Amino acid sequence: MLSRTADHLFWMARYMERAENTSRMLDINSQGLLLPQTPEQEARAQRSVLRISELEESFAARHPDSDSRADMLDFMVADAGNPSSIIACLHATRENARAVRGTLTTEGWETINFTWLEFNERLASGELQRSPDTLFEWVKYRSNLCRGVMVGTALRDDAFYFMQIGTYLERADNTARILDVRFADAEPNSREAARQLEDFYYWTSILSSVSALEIYRKVYRDVVTPSRVVELLILNEAMPRSLLASLDGVCETLVKLRTGNSNECERFAGKLRADVLYADIRQILETGVHAYLTQFLKRVDELGVRVMRAFLMLPLA
């Protein structure tokens, strides 16, 4: 397969997954507003979304001196100038899909194209201002639908596997970011941090946002606690959106895409997976979840670069 075609498929899948996960992160933020908060806590919650997405500076440049939730939502959802906004991600998904339209199934292309068109209609109707939660649920639904159509109609060839590896890499990155929102926001060794980290309603919303609340109840059959949420979303191989499950998908897909240039990439992915597989939840909690996730995000980013070097970038003459 041509590197250019593989590149379009890889990024098409990544951007669709990114749009979904941005919706999940904003959904957590919305659910948090239903709980009693001081104005300072609410403002900190808005900033944490931007910080975890590494968009604080970009937001400040476009909205100086603003802690407004409306401005934050507009920036994260409808601002085409923000490359990580939902509208930018869905546009990039559609443009990458259009570039390889002949490689996709008719159903796959039509699902992506209709998602883009309807999203713009929903924005124009004022749904973001009127009912943001409804819009977030719709984005998650359409992402799941697009992925399901691809899985249900695509030939299992290199094109399919490049879509898969893009999805798994993005999912690993975004699950880590969603989990890190509260840990990154808490002030170390403070009573307020301890209270925040034990917030039952917050952790329930985290689980709901990654479609894991029912899974948690089946696995633990007990009250929701931060340590178990961390264990489920990092170490549980049977949890579809966990870090370990995402890395399983990356490693399995790399085997199917194996070439003479991919050995180093496979080894790096295998070592990262092994480090997560054999991690001890007690050690993660003692060392600090934020520190662990920060290091994980750096390594996943490096893995993405190695995948691009192995498969997507044309060799220099």
UniProtKB/TrEMBL annotation:
Protein's name according to its UniProt entry: DUF403 domain-containing protein
Protein origin, superkingdom: Bacteria
Family annotation (InterPro entries): ATP-dep_Glu-Cys_Ligase-2, DUF403
Matches recorded under Pfam families: Alpha-E
Domain DUF403 residues, every copy: 1-312
